[in-house]
Design a protein that fits this description.
Layout: E1 3-4, E2 22-26, E3 29-31, H1 40-65, H2 80-87, E4 95-97, H3 103-108, H4 113-120, H5 154-168, E5 174-179, H6 186-197, E6 202-208, E7 211-212, E8 215-216, H7 217-220, E9 237-241, H8 245-260, E10 266-271, H9 289-299, H10 301-311, H11 317-340
Parallel strand pairs: 4-5, 5-6, 6-10, 9-10
Antiparallel strand pairs: 1-9, 2-3, 7-8
Helix pairs in contact: 1-2, 1-10, 1-11, 2-8, 4-11, 5-6
The protein binds thiamine diphosphate.
Residues 101, 149-151, 178-182, 209, 211-213, 278 line the site of thiamine diphosphate.
């Protein structure tokens, strides 16, 4: 288990045995791979949500290719275990905020797939009435605060949400997701300072997918140990295998409990990988096909959990196929809704505008 900052230790979690940790190949830092226990129902739920995100994103990619989605569209394929593992540690009333690679976060927050897809196609039935698009959707009811296109902007906003939880004393925690590219933004450190100073219930989740647009983390960051980025402020951090939903859940339970108990913020770095380009217009020439294939073959979070479900006799082939069909149906219906829902009325140009 890799931890930084000698501050008050969070609720004790046994160090993973040697067989459960492996070197990240990154200067002495190790990845935490200790796994959370999960019931059969939970395992099925995590698998189903990851599959829903994957199929939804594949369909969104197709609709984009057909010219039905305008503007930007950043797919989350490959990173599903991060958001599903993190969400498993939340309670009703907690909050989530993220950047533009956000459809997976919305689905994990239980937002409606049809409403998300209709927003992508710019239709009235979308979460922002078709006026926000891929990067700008919110659901206060589900505790999801967007969807932000300015790199790093969600970090101070999420810190403010954590402040609100503390101010209202409602017991809530805010999960603030950002990429390793965003981790070099100045506003991230202003946020860290305030979060620690005021001991805010904030969990910062660095989704380290190795690339910020076309630049690898190694080329862009003086230090690639992102979980240590809070050490100057006394914020503890940990790096976790972001391709294993139960490893993420284990780390998330600890981090969320730490923040919820009034100890202040926590940083989790999830090592993950995006299979697609940065956005739909990126041919991803800065990495080899072999690199992507290797990770897909050996570390895919959905394949890994599927194998585990079979091995543990949680689901057999026939039940897995049923689940597959159920998820595909949800996505087909979402895509149909996103094309049948009308475009917003032009009069909507003048609503929801703050002047
Ligand atoms: C302030 C600002 N600077 C630059 C950009 C352009 N931009 C969009 S995404 C991105 C890379 C961010 O990478 P990372 O934070 O690692 O997230 P990822 O895309 O890998 O999920 C950049 C530079 C932007 N949107 N906002």
């Amino acid at each position: 288990m890799a931890k930084s900052a000698p501050k008050a230790e969070p609720a004790k979690r046994a160090a993973a045995p040697a067989s459960e940790t492996r070197s990240s190949g990154n200067a002495a830092a190790e990845i935490s791979t200790a796994r959370a226990p999960a019931t059969k129902d939970e395992l099925i739920r995590y698998y189903r949500t990851m599959l829903l995100i994957r199929r939804f994103e594949e369909r969104a990619g197709q609709l984009y290719g057909m010219g039905l989605i305008g503007g930007f569209c950043h797919l989350y394929i490959g990173q599903e275990a991060v958001v599903v593992g993190m969400q498993a540690a939340l309670k009703p009333g907690d909050s989530v905020i993220t950047a533009y690679r956000d459809h997976g976060h919305m689905l994990a927050c239980d937002m409606d797939a049809g409403g998300v897809m209709a927003e992508l196609t710019g239709r009235k039935g979308g979460y922002s009435k078709g006026k926000g698009g891929s990067m700008h959707m919110f659901s206060v009811e589900k505790g999801f605060y967007g969807g932000h296109g300015i790199v790093g902007a969600q970090v101070p906003l999420g810190t403010g949400i954590a402040f609100a939880h503390k101010y209202k004393d409602d017991g809530g925690v805010c999960l603030i997701y950002f990429g390793e590219g965003a981790a070099n933004q100045g506003q991230v450190y202003e946020s860290f300072n305030m979060a620690e100073l005021w001991r805010l219930p904030a969990v910062y989740v660095v989704e380290n997918n190795q690339y910020g647009m076309g630049t690898s983390a190694k080329r862009a960051s003086a230090s690639t140990e992102f979980f240590k980025r809070g050490s100057a402020y006394g914020i503890p951090g940990e790096r976790v295998d972001g391709m294993d939903v139960l490893a993420v859940k284990a780390a998330a339970l600890e981090a969320v409990e730490f923040a919820r108990s009034g100890n202040g913020p926590y940083i989790l770095e999830a090592l993950t990988y995006r299979y697609r380009g940065h956005s739909m217009s990126d041919p991803a020439k800065y990495r080899t096909k072999e690199e992507v294939e290797e990770i897909r073959k050996k570390r895919d979070p959905i394949d890994r959990l599927r194998e585990e479900l079979i091995e543990k006799r949680v689901l057999d082939d026939a039940k897995l196929k049923d689940l597959d069909r159920e998820v595909r149906d949800i996505v087909v219906r979402a895509a149909e809704f996103s094309q049948q829902s009308p475009e917003p009325d032009p009069a909507e140009l003048y609503t929801d505008v703050l002047a």
